[in-house]
Each structure stands twice: as structure tokens, then as C-alpha cells.
């Protein structure tokens, strides 16, 4: 992804395939799970809900935590984590073994929100 592509995504605003997080928090597992159960998407950490960039550094601790969160999904799942211009980009592919759960809970994207669902 280029800086121009990142700027374009931020200008589009949050939606079905795009989530902004101002800072890293382990609750991001819920958003990853919801996107995996939908059509995939991107989570941008370091971007406020109104599209302002608040730079965040992708360090080994955060990268490891994100990978550990995803490793605990059922069934197995992986994401790509990178940083561009102070924004952590979590690229969530469309899940091939749906439904996915995290901590025994299922989530699905509905518009720009992630909703908890039952397995059915």
C-alpha cells in the first residue's frame, strides 16, 4: 500500500470494510473477527473516527499481541500487519473457514459496526 492509497482510504471514512482505531487495544480482535466473517477489510490504528491521523508506532510488542489475538481464533486465521506513515494497517482477508470466533464469541460486520452473533 502506498501513502496515496492510505490517504484515499482515510478520506473514504469508516465502512463495511474499513475500521479506524485511534490507538491499539486488544479489543481489536473483535473487529478482525467480524471482518473475517464478512468480506475482509482493513483496520487502521492511529486514525480517529473523524479521519485525523494520530501517529502510532508499530513495535514488536504490538505486532506480537495482534498475532497472538488472531492465533487464538477458532478456526485458525492469519492477518498481515504493517505500518505506513504512523498508521498501523491490519489487512484482514475474507475468511475461508467461516464462522470464526474469538474468546468463544462470534462477530459480524453490519455496516460500519461489528455486532456479536450466536453461532447460528
Gyration radius, rounded: 13 Å
- Termini Cα gap: 36 Å
Which residues form runs of ≥5 with pLDDT under 50? none
Structural class: alpha+beta
Order of helices and strands: HEHEHEEEEE
Average residue pLDDT: 95
Largest sheet: 4 strands, mixed
The amount of helix comes to 25-40%
Give the overall shape: globular
Number of strands: 7
Strand order of the largest sheet: 1-2-4-3
Q: DSSP helix count?
A: 3
**Beta fraction of the residues?**
25-35%
Short characterization:
The chain is an alpha+beta fold and 120 residues long. The protein contains 3 helices and 7 strands.
Model description:
The chain has 120 residues and is α+β, with helices and mostly antiparallel strands. Helices cover 27% and strands 28% of the residues. The chain contains three helices and seven strands. It has helices spanning 3-12, 28-37, 60-71, and strands at 18-21, 41-45, 80-84, 87-92, 101-102, 105-110, 113-117. A four-stranded mixed beta sheet has the order 1-2-4-3, with helices on both faces. Strands 5-6-7 form a three-stranded antiparallel beta sheet. It starts with a helix and ends with a strand. 29% of the residues are buried. The mean pLDDT is 95.
What's the arrangement of secondary structure elements?
Blueprint: H1 3-12, E1 18-21, H2 28-37, E2 41-45, H3 60-71, E3 80-84, E4 87-92, E5 101-102, E6 105-110, E7 113-117
Which labels suit this protein?
three-stranded antiparallel sheet; single chain; alpha+beta; about 120 residues; globular
